[in-house]
Amino acid sequence: MTERTAAPGQRADMVRNRRLLLEAATAAFAEQGVDVPIGEIAQRAGLAKGTVFRHFASKEDLLAAIMLQMLDQLIHSADRLAQADDAAAALREFMADGVEVLAADRAFCEVIGRPSLQHAGVRDAINRLCVAAEALTARAREQGAVRGDITGTDVVLLLGGIHQTAAPLLAAEPQAWRRYLELALDGLRVTDARPLPHRPPDRLDLADPPALG
Amino acid sequence: MTERTAAPGQRADMVRNRRLLLEAATAAFAEQGVDVPIGEIAQRAGLAKGTVFRHFASKEDLLAAIMLQMLDQLIHSADRLAQADDAAAALREFMADGVEVLAADRAFCEVIGRPSLQHAGVRDAINRLCVAAEALTARAREQGAVRGDITGTDVVLLLGGIHQTAAPLLAAEPQAWRRYLELALDGLRVTDARPLPHRPPDRLDLADPPALG
Amino acid sequence: MTERTAAPGQRADMVRNRRLLLEAATAAFAEQGVDVPIGEIAQRAGLAKGTVFRHFASKEDLLAAIMLQMLDQLIHSADRLAQADDAAAALREFMADGVEVLAADRAFCEVIGRPSLQHAGVRDAINRLCVAAEALTARAREQGAVRGDITGTDVVLLLGGIHQTAAPLLAAEPQAWRRYLELALDGLRVTDARPLPHRPPDRLDLADPPALG
Amino acid sequence: MTERTAAPGQRADMVRNRRLLLEAATAAFAEQGVDVPIGEIAQRAGLAKGTVFRHFASKEDLLAAIMLQMLDQLIHSADRLAQADDAAAALREFMADGVEVLAADRAFCEVIGRPSLQHAGVRDAINRLCVAAEALTARAREQGAVRGDITGTDVVLLLGGIHQTAAPLLAAEPQAWRRYLELALDGLRVTDARPLPHRPPDRLDLADPPALG
DNA sequence: GATGAATGAGTTTTCATTCAT
DNA sequence: GATGAATGAAAACTCATTCAT
Known about the structure:
Four copies of one chain form a homotetramer. Chain A is an all-alpha fold. The first copy, chain A, has helices spanning 8-32, 38-45, 49-55, 59-81, 87-103, 106-112, 120-142, 152-166, 177-189. In chain A, helix 4 (59-81) runs parallel beside helix 7 (120-142). Chains in contact: A-B, C-D.
């Protein structure tokens, strides 16, 4: 509707292609991990390989775009839920959303587990997610729904951990992650335990990629 | 007859090379994941590429050997700790061992997270680990140190999950996993919570690799 | 299945490259046999290695395409000559064509002499050639130009045999095969000899490749 | 010249190993062609790979030794049969022997069909075989059992041709070559035909291998 | 802007040959 | 002399990326 510029057909096409491409790439990365060939992504999107490179300068960029998409979705979810009255329920919902998003995605785990992330944009988004999760978590702490030494970054990290716990069961039992989410929430709620060792991570201090050589 | 006689030199060299190779491969897989080229492993070991294939018929076999090595170590640990008097302490020690082993290893995560495992030997070892962990866990349950609906397979799965939780911090804070281990143990100890959803996994029902096509 | 491309005649460049490739491969296989490296074929064609695999999914497929090309040419020749009045002359011409085609080709001999052929397409083409040759041979038998117990498959097999007979002379005397063609034709014409031992082959019963193991 | 040296036991072992090796290599080359790995030959012989290279400086040399063995056997056969009264029968027997020897051997065909033979020894043996066959053939010509313009070299070349003719049938019908031997003999016997084209080959003028590059 | 053909570096794997024991 | 471990030069094949059409 808003896109009324000079070559409307072309522009609309590009937008449409970009959407098709992102959808196809999301699905392909999710199912097969980061090693899925660009050619397969293009094919799933009904596009030619060259078109992928017109939209994204490299495969790494495409992957980053998808990660950002997922992360933005989670940031949104955290922001929204930070307004909720029942912080405990809100935290559960956020974490369920988060694990479910990850559960569908092999590539995310592969990317997140790397000692260094290539894309500054992804690193930033993860940090923004931590901030958003901290807002949510702070309220839960205040309401006594979560122990005092748990941070938003802890919560974000737990998303990956819960997903990974259930990952080997994923094929046979797609909902198994709910079991481990509850287990984690029970752990988060414990108040009479010894304080957790190791200082709470306040921000993910993700390293720059190492210099080549 | 025994391995002391005849040609000690040659044999010793080969044993040494095999050790170098396994060490190099363990480190390389750990740092870079399963996609690390054989050539790099060979170089790290100070060997030629061909030598790797003299020791292991394929890259897959080499990877399996390393996974088996790690798994056997954990099975051993579980068996030993199942004899301990204090089941709670034994469980903590087992899990600490397990996470530490995994903490060093990207490849393990990638392999374990796959929908299907190629090597029957690795699948078997994982199942044996679950059995060994169940013995340990059963005693902890009996002693009231662990909630009633937690199985050995849960415990094994949690190893991967705890590692994954801490993975993004690994480079900057190598000991961060201890925090999440305690958090998980606190969750495991909770007795007044709602029962966990989803049925407990009794054995990892890892699928055979899908038929080609 | 053998040929990868979809849209015909799109790129003039591609068609040209494909032709160059087939010519180079034909020559290379002919001179050096099936073990000629793909890299050399590519180089002769002025292409990169990868381009060969864009046109043919595997070396086996490329080889099959060339074999099929040759076989189709011979089938054509047989079909055309089956219309001729003078069956004896037609048979000589067919066999001369056939030997000359083979004479240039080491790979053909190696492929044809194998206990099993990998490509169903090539097996089929050989059988079709036998059928076409039988039509030609039948007329020659009827005209008394060929003894009664000779089949089209005999004739096809003789092409390879005549070529092989002359092969060691090929470099020094490229036309030597004509000598052995006449000798074979003289044998085929003999009528007062004892009947040939061993039953005539009616179709080449080329086995499927053996199962792996 | 005489071998009367110190360690007779060792010598006996070497002789035995050489025999085992030649037998294994003959069988392996016969079944699988020249591309059979040295390792398989060694294994069949119950020897180590290194031992093969103690006996033969290269794979090419081993192959040459086996070819020479086969050729010597045929030369012997020709010499013996040249004494026989019935030259026609003798020629048939020689050719039957020859084809049968080849029939069992994929490697021979691959070697003989090459434009150039690497080993002077093999070239010489082939030429000696031609001489021996010529003696046999001369008698057959004199007795009118073979047309006048056929030479011993023709006969030798025909061995390969007859084998090649039957080769595609070899797996299914191991005796099929007899059919084509008779056909060839019938051709050789024809006396009322036009003289064969192309001059008779008197000696195989096998080229030296081309210079590298 | 889209296409997909071409490229070539990179990967696993094989195997003749060498050489230390 | 025998052994077989080590080597390294190919080989087939893949795939991100570039570029002519």
